[in-house]
């Protein structure tokens, strides 16, 4: 888990020609559309990973 996750596609143009940016941490450059962007982890969703049982079955009255 020491390796950072790498994006497969540019979020702006969808190209795969991405390379790490010298801007540092989590920054990438797209050679296709010439954009630089940064990926950052925002945190876990409050909802969590549990499957909510309320979604199953529907309501019976
Ligand atoms: Zn791009």
From TrEMBL:
This is Insertion element protein.
